[in-house]
Every structure is written in structure tokens, then in C-alpha cells.
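Lab meeting, item 3. Inverse folding demo.
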């Protein structure tokens, strides 16, 4: 048993194909009023996405996330700072933000606080995504007052696959 355990540890430590986290830097200054600077994705019992903004969070900004679990429609979450939030995921085609339906997701968390210098973040339990082997994430910050947007990693583009 101890040999088997050791083998697993070595395989995990040396397996370059199985990352369970990813970080993508986004250019600073590529948008006004909203400006994503860094996206970190962790794929564990939950998918956690943390997004740094180069400008302060503010009222009128809307934060949208799409998760591709490789198994059908994308999962979508969108919310504003310091606002109410339903613990449900929208199912959407491609990068639409008009869900065809919602699925309840107990344990879903979304955070954006204009009074704290912390990342905008979501936490989505894996079971809500169908327990996928890998996922990838796209993020869009939008300033609804000035109609400016900043996508990460790029317009209607997903980041790298993140293995479980
Ligand atoms: Ca940016």
C-alpha cells in the first residue's frame, strides 16, 4: 500500500499534463472603466475563479463567467457588486448571456465587494457541472454605464483547460 501511495505521489508531482490550477494575465490598460488584469482558476472539489481588476470595482459593473465543462451547453454566471445573487447556473450556447434554462446549484458562491480590495470570484461545486474531468473559463467585465467591456483571455475566448 505504501508503494502504491508513493507511486501516486510521484506521478502527480511529475505529470505536467495534469495541472489543477491556471493563471492568465490580461493586459492592463486595454479597456476603460473595467480592466481585468489576472484570472486564476482552480479545479478541485469546486471550480474557483478569482479575477483581479486593475481599476476599482464600482456600481454599474457586471461580471460574467462562462464555464465549458466539455459536456454540452456552457454554464453561465453573472452578477453585480454588492447585489443579490441566486444560487443557480444558467445554461447557454456559446457566449450568450441569455440562459435557455437555469439549474439549481447549492453551494454556488459569487463575490464582488466595492468596499474591499479583493478579487471578484465565483465558486462552483463540481457536481453542478456534471463532475467534469476538465474545465475552461471565460470572463467578461462590463461597465454598463459606459458600455465598455474587458474579456479575459480574449473576446469570446476560453482560457486553457484545467484538469481536475
Ligand atoms: Ca485588461
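The presenter then showed the designed sequence:
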Amino acid at each position: 500500500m505504501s508503494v502504491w501511495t508513493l507511486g501516486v505521489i510521484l506521478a502527480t508531482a511529475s505529470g505536467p499534463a495534469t495541472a489543477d490550477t491556471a493563471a492568465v494575465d490580461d493586459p492592463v490598460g486595454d479597456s476603460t472603466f473595467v480592466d481585468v488584469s489576472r484570472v486564476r482558476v482552480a479545479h478541485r472539489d469546486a471550480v474557483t475563479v478569482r479575477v483581479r481588476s486593475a481599476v476599482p470595482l464600482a456600481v454599474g459593473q457586471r461580471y460574467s463567467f462562462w464555464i465549458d465543462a466539455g459536456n454540452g451547453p456552457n454554464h453561465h454566471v453573472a452578477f453585480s457588486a454588492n447585489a443579490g445573487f441566486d444560487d443557480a447556473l444558467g445554461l447557454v450556447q456559446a457566449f450568450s448571456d441569455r440562459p435557455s434554462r437555469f439549474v439549481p446549484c447549492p453551494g454556488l458562491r459569487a463575490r464582488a465587494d466595492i468596499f474591499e480590495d479583493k478579487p471578484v470570484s465565483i465558486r462552483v461545486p463540481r457536481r453542478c457541472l456534471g463532475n467534469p474531468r476538465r474545465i475552461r473559463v471565460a470572463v467578461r467585465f462590463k461597465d454598463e454605464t459606459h458600455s465598455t467591456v474587458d474579456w479575459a483571455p480574449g473576446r469570446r475566448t476560453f482560457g486553457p483547460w484545467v484538469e481536475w
